[in-house]
Amino acid sequence: MVLAFVGFGDGAASLSGRTWRVGDPSWKESIVDVQWPSDGTLDGSELSSVRTDLSPDGRLLLLTRKLTDSGTGVLNSTQAALFDGKTGRPLGIPDAEGRFGPVPEVGGPYLEWGGWGCRPAWRNGLPVATDDRIRKAVIALGDDLVSVSSRYGSPCVAFAGNELRGEPVADTAAVWQERLWVWGGRLLVLLGIGTLIWWFTRRRSWNEGAGSGPVPYFLPTRG
Predict the structure, then answer these.
(1) Who's near 5: CB < 8 A, 6+ residues apart?
(2) Angle CA 62–64–68, to nearest 5
(3) Buried b / exposed e across 189-204, counting CB within 10 Å, b at 16+?
(4) pLDDT at 20 exceeding the cut of 70
(5) Is pLDDT of 193 > 80?
(6) In the chain, where the domains are located
(7) Distance (Å) of CA 12 to CA 41, 51, 168, 198
(8) What is the pTM of this model?
(9) Nearest CA-CA partner of 46 in 29, 30, 69, 64
């Protein structure tokens, strides 16, 4: 089954669900309709693009939207909210342990972070923000789950199956290789500059020493 959502216009506050199965002649309306939390409505100076992501187990639906200043076109941030994947009921944002608190009858809490464009991933059934840094999308964005090398050329990181699995393992060798890559060139430049300064200083002192030696003294003689 394919689940899709239909919205109309920029900054659509609600999305209507549609489903399609192999053999169906057309899309059908779904009971899953989602509405953006009322306390996260746009203030009129921002335009948004909305995107939905379903968790691998189909239990949660993540709704994200890009906030862009309508006057300058500058990206402000990303807002995210979670919903029940079967009923569309707003769930709010979980804590670090994955627990959901009570949600107000109207609207609900949402999460906001900088950046936009990288597709969120999932870990243990909970969303992971991948814009700039890879962190749990919880009430307070957690610590980095994965350290990405500065040599990685793409702005976004993709995971197999859109899911981050396994346990983190500290790779000391990789950490030092990254440090050497980042700081090695800078240290070599500083070492070269320091060597040149030392050489010119020593050369100057040698020249001054050669020109300020003791003046020879000759005793007067007769004849």
Answers:
(1) 15, 16, 17, 18, 34, 52
(2) 180
(3) eeeeeeeeeeeeeeee
(4) yes
(5) yes
(6) 2-169, 170-205
(7) 10, 11, 38, 66
(8) 0.65
(9) 69
